[in-house]
Design brief:
There is one protein chain. By secondary structure, this protein is an alpha+beta fold. The protein has one domain: 60s Ribosomal Protein L30, Chain: A. Helix content is 23%, strand content 30%. The chain contains two helices and six strands; from the N terminus they run βββαβαββ. The strands form two sheets. Strands 3-6-4-5 form a four-stranded mixed sheet. β4, α2 and β5 form a beta-alpha-beta unit. The chain is globular and about 40 Å long.
Amino acid sequence: MKKEFINPRDMQQSPGRPFSLGVKVKAQELLFVAGQTSRDIHGNTVGIGDIRAQTRQIMENIAKILREGGATYADIVKITMFLTDLKDLPGALEVRAEFLKENKPASTAVQAGLRKDALIEIEVIAALG
């Protein structure tokens, strides 16, 4: 699948920005991954109070869903992160970068009320084909 990252020259260009302003794809299928929190297979919250540990568990959970749907991290075109406190965003982005490597999908981060013990919830859209 060919992706075109859209970052107009006449808009702000932040050096090292871990996302693209837009992503254009011609896909045969889309995989929508529901918001994931840092619960393990037993329903326990992983990394209580630790944004990096929670983000890592979420990204591992997302990997399982992507794999089951025939996708990989490279297929993600949109990622939305919901955080209880935006001061945790740098830590979440640091861990996210470990998983997304060269892929810089369109991205949104918002502050939101989440369930007990959750510092972050992440949902993604992947384009296949």
